Amino acid sequence: MEKLETPSTDRPVDRLARWAPLASAADAWQSVVKKVLESAGPAVVDALHGTPLGHPLHPLLTDVPVGAWTVTAVLDALELAGKDDLAAGADASLAIGIGGAVLAATAGWADWSDADGEAKSLGLAHAGLNAVALGAYAAALLLRRNGNRETGIALGMIGYAFVSAAGYLGGELSFGRGVGVRQTGEPVTPPTDFVTVLDAGELAEGAMHRVEAQGVPVLLYREGETISALSAVCTHAGGPLDEGSVKDGCVTCPWHGSTFRFSDGAAVHGPAVFPVSRYEARIVQGKIQVRALAG
């Protein structure tokens, strides 16, 4: 499998992504995570990716710990300024953050299990920083409940620093590396008028064929008199669907196993969560023509 990497620069985050010991650790740990996920079953893994939602689950869950721990930091600061009546609220939001972090981490590991190259290294660093933050907050909660509030508050502030650093790497993974972003390989405006892409005789029964429709990569599939036309690019990581396999009216990406239904383009198995674009197809005078669906 070939995949383009983000061009190398001298930013600290890029040097971290290229750090060999981190890459080796990521390779070893990813194999462990994959085995755990395989034992959980495809339904659980799809749920962790967010495939049934049609949206990644991990970013939805991360709002809980980040928001809760931000409340904790504010209330802790006010408590240090003399507002002792806010202690219970600070501890409650801290505990809520711990629960949310565990859920977010579970979904995050599922997404990371399919990461490649430098994104895999940065993903492990992101998880490691979050793990330190979680440990600090857990210790902080125990100290507070045992009456050692000052040390508990100090550990909470340390945890907030680590979770902030982890958030920076999470932003780099999403916005800088495109992890979890819908991949389309399409221009902003696909063809709205029918364009000829292939002789009908070149598309055999039960066969797939990749064509270009005004620069848009389109996958054609023929079943009887029905011709299905989908984007040829997997929405998970941009894999070539035309090199995948067909079963039960669906095409499976050869890179990470995302599966899409020909009838509506929906993602039925992850790690993809977004559907692929579907096109209208017809045969006119022995030629297959496609266009974007109206409306």
Question: How many structural domains in the coordinates?
Answer: 2
The low-confidence runs, each spanning 5 or more residues with pLDDT under 50, are 1-7
Looking at the structure, what is the overall shape? elongated
Please provide the count of β strands: 10
Give the rounded overall mean pLDDT: 92
Summing up helix and strand content along with how strands pair, one would put the structural category as alpha+beta
Helical percent range? Answer: 40-55%
Distance between the ends: 36 Å
Continuous helix count: 7
Q: From the alpha-carbon coordinates, what is the Rg to the nearest angstrom? A: 24 Å
Order of helices and strands, N to C?
HHHHHHHEEEEEEEEEE
What percentage of the residues does DSSP assign to strands (E)?
15-25%
Major sheet size, sense and barrel closure:
6 strands, antiparallel
Spatial arrangement of strands, main beta sheet: 1-10-9-4-3-2
What is the strand and helix layout of this fold?
Layout: H1 12-17, H2 20-40, H3 42-49, H4 58-80, H5 87-112, H6 117-145, H7 149-176, E1 195-199, E2 208-213, E3 216-223, E4 226-231, E5 245-247, E6 250-252, E7 259-261, E8 267-269, E9 278-284, E10 287-292
Antiparallel strand pairs: 1-10, 2-3, 3-4, 4-9, 5-6, 6-7, 7-8, 9-10
Helix pairs in contact: 2-6, 4-5, 4-7, 5-6, 6-7
